[in-house]
């Protein structure tokens, strides 16, 4: 396990993380380039951050809605530790961190591919992220890109999302960034829970039909979907943001 360390991301701003390159990319993606610019949160919002990484989206949501209640999910131990460290560093109230992956059913001892230098590419998908590596080659030098995708398998616990949500609590936003495991995660949402989810935002890639699968599933649950190219990625890259909204 790598201990989280403070990483400079902007003038007079440090965030706990384990990979400086990845943390800076995520900060720029979310705060500077507006990857989630169309997210809207009401006062006292209830937010689920699935695939929290080091908690940068949680920080973003808290700055947009200081009185939000957030449940963050991150299965990699050193990243979950970084989320907790950032919650303490920024004095964020009403944030709960669960150190689990999310899937269709509960399981223990599940293999998970982790990329220590590119944690945001880590996934329950055990195959090497060849396509994702090709996407990131658009902005990373070849040698660095190769190093970033030197992965290792770790063992994690998988839970269903509904099993860890308050009963009958309306969800103002479900944010999902799980690198290919989106449909499995949605499979762990109970049928009676779906009408309580008002807004979904999914950071995903145009790989192996992922976008079509996500949009079809959200539409089948009564949501209107829209698609935007991720503004943090260069033109021609395969990263997108899918929005699902009820009503």
Descriptive report:
The protein is an alpha/beta fold. The protein has a single domain (about 5-245), classed as Rossmann fold, CATH 3.40.50.150. About 25% of the residues lie in helices and about 30% in strands. It has helices spanning about 20-30, 55-65, 75-90, 130-135, 140-150, 180-185, 210-220, and strands at about 5-10, 15, 45-50, 70-75, 95-100, 100, 105-115, 150-160, 175, 200-205, 225-230, 240-245. The strands form three sheets. A seven-stranded mixed sheet has the order 5-4-3-9-10-12-11, with helices on both faces. A three-stranded mixed sheet has the order 6-8-7, with no helix packed on it. Strands 1-2 form a two-stranded antiparallel sheet. Strand 1 and strand 2 form a beta hairpin. The longest helix is centred in the N-terminal third of the chain and has 13 residues, at about 20-30. The chain starts with a strand and ends with a strand. The model has no long low-confidence stretch (mean pLDDT about 90).
Reconstruct the topology from this structure.
Blueprint: E1 5-10, E2 13-17, H1 20-32, E3 46-50, H2 56-64, E4 69-73, H3 77-89, E5 95-98, E6 101-102, E7 107-114, H4 130-136, H5 142-148, E8 152-159, E9 173-176, H6 182-187, E10 199-205, H7 210-220, E11 223-229, E12 239-246
Parallel strand pairs: 3-4, 3-9, 4-5, 6-8, 9-10
Antiparallel strand pairs: 1-2, 7-8, 10-12, 11-12
CA radius of gyration is: 17 Å
Name the CATH superfamily assignment: Vaccinia Virus protein VP39
What is the H-and-E element order? EEHEHEHEEEHHEEHEHEE
Q: What is the 3D shape?
A: globular
In helices, the fraction of residues equals: 25-40%
How would you state the average pLDDT, rounded? Answer: 91
Count up the domains.
1
Poorly predicted runs are none
């Amino acid at each position: 396990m790598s201990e989280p360390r403070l990483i400079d991301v902007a003038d007079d701003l440090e965030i706990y993380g384990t990979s400086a390159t990845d943390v800076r990319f995520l900060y720029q993606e979310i705060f500077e380039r507006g990857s989630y610019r169309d997210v809207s949160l009401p006062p006292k919002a209830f937010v689920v951050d699935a695939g929290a990484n080091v908690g940068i989206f949680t920080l973003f949501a808290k700055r947009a809605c200081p009185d939000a209640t957030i449940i963050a999910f991150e299965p990699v131990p050193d990243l979950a530790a970084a989320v907790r460290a950032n919650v303490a560093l920024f004095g964020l109230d009403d944030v709960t961190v669960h150190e689990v992956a999310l899937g269709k059913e509960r399981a223990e001892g599940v293999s998970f591919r982790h990329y220590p230098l590119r944690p945001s590419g880590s996934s329950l998908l055990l195959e090497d992220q060849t396509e994702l590596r090709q996407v990131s080659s658009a902005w990373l030098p070849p040698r660095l890109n190769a190093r970033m995708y030197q992965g290792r398998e770790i063992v994690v616990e998988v839970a269903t999302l509904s099993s860890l949500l308050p009963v009958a609590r309306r969800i103002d936003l479900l944010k999902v960034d799980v690198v290919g495991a989106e449909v499995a995660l949605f499979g762990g949402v109970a049928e009676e829970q779906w009408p309580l989810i008002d807004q979904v935002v999914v950071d995903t890639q145009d790989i192996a039909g992922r976008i079509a699968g996500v949009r079809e599933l959200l539409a089948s649950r009564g949501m209107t979907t829209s698609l935007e190219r991720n503004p943090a990625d260069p033109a021609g890259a395969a990263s997108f943001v899918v929005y699902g909204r009820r009503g």
